[in-house]
Amino acid sequence: MPRLYHTKSRTGCARCRARRVKCDESRPKCKSCGRHGVECIYDRPAGSNGSSSSKAHHYAQSRPSSTPSTGQNARDPGAENFDLLAEESRDRRYREMRLLHYFTVEVTTTIPGYFFPQIKKIRTVDVPSMAMEYEPLLNAIMALSIVHLSYMDNTRGILKPEQLEWQGAQYLEATLQQHRNAIGSLEREIADPASFTSVILSLHALASLRERTFEPYHPPIQWLQMCKGVMNVFKVTIPFVRDDPTAKINVVTESSAPFVEPSVLFCEANRN
Fold first, then answer.
1. pTM here?
2. Which residues of 16-47 are buried (b: 16+ CB within 10 A; e: fewer)?
3. 126 within domain boundaries
4. Which tens digits make up the pLDDT trace of 221-242?
5. Burial of 206 by CB count in 10 Å (0-12 exposed, 13-18 middle, 19+ buried)?
6. Inside any domain, residue 256
7. Contact, 169 vs 148, CB < 8 A?
8. Which residues constitute the domain of residue 218?
């Protein structure tokens, strides 16, 4: 199946996993977090392979059922076995509702093409609607909203500043695991939301480039590999929706043609 992200760290700290970089896993603080002067959180037990049995909502196993948790580990974001998505809770419902709202009213306005009314409707109405039926897309929206919040001066009370990185890492990893599983057994009815999930993953990776260090300079290999993975996913999904008049991804790709399609970009009218 197509590779999505190039995974650099599975058992490293939450920050390194969110940035898709190698973590040396030194404790209590890894070298990368020490260099950036930020909190280092290990939210996975050593030796965990990051596997997950969850898949797309309505097409495989649903979210884990609500299970009451007690003790410090259930509430401490730095606890080894803490898993943000392991249980349903009132806090989680409110957080995700507010992140979804933030995506529709704030994040979408910063994505190119927002000034096209049809594209605006797709991003603010249709994509959130698809996310209600395709859980990888919902988690991708959560992850992108969190990385967007991390660059704002005010987190709007949705999350505490110290929670942004490890919660963003949890949503991102959930997206990747579920999306890989769904793509591996793709069906026509999820081809459209799966395409948008890949688009949002590419936006997340692009936004995360701001975290890169430039001295010494290293090319953005992870981002380039992720873009290649997105194109591989499109090669799988697009044949399912190419002739579907209701597929929203077709509208987006057609509107992007003047900017990315060589036959349009270099047409005679543009050469004059």
1. 0.67
2. bbbbbbebeeeeebbebbeeeeeebbbbbeee
3. yes
4. 877 887 788 888 888 888 898 8
5. middle
6. yes
7. no
8. 90-262
